[in-house]
Structures are given as C-alpha cells and as structure tokens.
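User: Predict the complex with magnesium ion.
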Amino acid sequence: MNFFAWIAKMRGKKPQPEMQEPDTDNEITHIGIDLGTVNTVVYISGKGLVFNEPSTVAFDAESGSIIAAGYRANAMIGKAHDKIRVVRQLVHGAVSDSTAAKAFLKHIITTHYPETALKHRTTLLVCCHANLSKVERKALKDLAKSIGIEDVLVENEIKAGAAGMDIDYYKPGGTLIADIGGGSTDIGVLSLGDLVVNRSTKTAGNCFDREIMNYLKFKRNFEIGPATAEKLKIELATLRSEISSDKFTMIAGRNIKNGLPGTIKVKQTEIRDVLVKSFRTVVEEIYKVLEVCPPEISSEILDEGIYVNGGGSKIDGLKEFLEERLQLPVTLSKDPLNSIALGTKVLLKNRGNYRVNPFN
Ligand SMILES: Nc1ncnc2c1ncn2[C@@H]1O[C@H](COP(=O)(O)OP(=O)(O)OP(=O)(O)O)[C@@H](O)[C@H]1O
Ligand SMILES: [Mg+2]
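Assistant: Here is the predicted structure with magnesium ion placed in the model:
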C-alpha cells in the first residue's frame, strides 16, 4: 500500500483508485502515447490502456476551455455552431494545431494521472510516423514538454507496433510491417532493433473515405460527409473478388440533382471497387520498400512474410488480397488499434535503445 492510500486508510476514507500517486518520490511512471491522425491511445504503467478515442477536441470559442475530447468531440464534427471550435489536431501524423494538441494531451493525461506528478516522476514516449522530419519530431517533443513533462522520448510507431505485436525485431533478419492508419500508411523494415528502410503514403483510412465520397458524388450524384463515408467503409468494406451475397446499406445525404436531403442504397460491391483501387497503391508502396531492402533481409522476409497493423488492417479480405498480389505470407495484427500503444510499454523499458534488447 502506498503512502497516500495508507493516510486515506488511517482517516477511514476509501483510497481513490483512479488517481493514485506513485509509490515513492523516486518511482517513475511510464506513459506511452500513440497520437494518431484519427485515434489516440494512451498507456500508463500500472494502469494499462486508459484512453482509446478519436484525436478530436472541442473548445468553447470564446473562453478557449475544452468542452469535449475524444468521442464526444468527434460527434460534433460538421454539426457545431460558431461558439464551438472542433479540431482534429493532426494531419497525416504531424501536429497541425499545437494549441489544440497541447490542450488535448494535457486533458487526457491529467484525467488519469495527477498533474502534480508529471514533472519529476514521469517518462513519456510519443509515437510518430517514420517519415516525420526532425523539426516535426521536435515539435512533438516540445508539445509534451509544454504540458509539464521533462523526460520525453519520440519513437517510430512501426517499432512500437512491432513490440506490441510481440515481434522480436532485435534478431538479425528482417521484419516488414505495414501500418495502415487514418492519415497515412507507413511501411518499414526492422532489423537488429531499428528501422532499416521505410516509406509512407497518404493512401490510408481518411483517403479511403474521400474516395468513397468522390465516387458517390460523381457516379451517383449524391453528397455525403466524411463521418458517413467512414461508417459506410466500416460496415461494407471488403477486398474480396468473390462476394456471395451483395450486402447494402442505406445512407442519408444530399441529392446533388435537386439539392434536397435524401437517402440512397449503397452496395458492398461499389465500396469494394473503390477500395481495390486505393489498395493497389498500398501494394505498390510495399513493393517499393521490398525493392530497396538489402538482399539478406529480403530473403528473411520471403520466409517470414509481412505484418499488417493499424485500423485499415481490419478491412475484410485484406490478408488474401495482399497475399495474392505480393506472393508472400501476410499476418494481421490481433489488436490493430492498440498494438502501438501497447508496444510503448516495451520501448519505455530500454528508452528505444537498439543496443538493449527489452525482450530479454
Ligand atoms: N473495421 C474497420 N474497417 C475499415 N477501416 C477501419 C475499421 N476500423 C477502423 N478503421 C479505420 O482505421 C483508421 C484509424 O486507424 P488508426 O487508429 O490505426 O489510425 P491513426 O493511428 O489514428 O492514424 P495514423 O497512424 O495515420 O496517424 C480510420 O480511418 C478508421 O476508419
Ligand atoms: Mg497510427
């Protein structure tokens, strides 16, 4: 029992489970954050995953105070009046609105961890896209420091994802991971504890949603917003060439011909055809990474195949689609939306140092 719990017990009060202070002044709490374009996931040592919600924050426009974060703020997108400012603070994995990002981070961390403990008792690891520039990485670090944490590390999300999927990327060999997120698809090859080559493309979740919106607009004369497009994708997305019975979903939007609100029926085969085009780009990007891979590593990948992580890996038929086109075995992440945050637990053990294998 820690000191604060003991005091609480002596006073006959029930200790607060949510906001326990660390055991001693010297105990360091590890916080790992997957600050994604669409979703943010937070891990805190001793508590596990404490937050997994959209990277969206809503402010009162006049006072600047937060009125909602995560799901509640996301539900306000496209519906708020001018007294509410709704912000998605990242674009393609880079912070685009640092004021909003700072407020969001502080809000979600201090909801689960005492603000007074941040400065001396915390190590924070933020995951970022592999292609983020030095300036963008420094901006992420400064952002975390601005909320009061002094010890901040920035690490590649591909490494964290590998650790979260229990892949020992410290072995001399090669592990290829494609992370199909919301803002970008990041592809990287890991060996001996770090990235050997990587590429990134904006063909990812948000782009798939835009392609669905464009298809409906230009082929069906029907306008929908990004939230409806994402809903359609999650309900109907498949990459299978054979679909036994064509499902459909009714959606609401605006009929472009008469400008009036209306509903239409969208078939699964329509969504499939839109997505197959985008996924051809993902395949090309994986090929480009394989082309620049050192030959010794390529031969390992040939045996081991590739791993796919991120929300996009939940699309039905992806494994078969990639295996057929790449002629390689494909392993899908078991927990694609959480594995990066879970992997921070491992990276925080060795502070991302490629010379210290945290799996030993
Ligand atoms: N079942 C599903 N089918 C299809 N797409 C899905 C499904 N579940 C989630 N997604 C998509 O996954 C994306 C979010 O994935 P993820 O949380 O890995 O991205 P992110 O980490 O926020 O983005 P990034 O890594 O690019 O910054 C969204 O575009 C979402 O629509
Ligand atoms: Mg991500």
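The domain at 169-333 is CATH 3.30.420.40 (Nucleotidyltransferase; domain 5).
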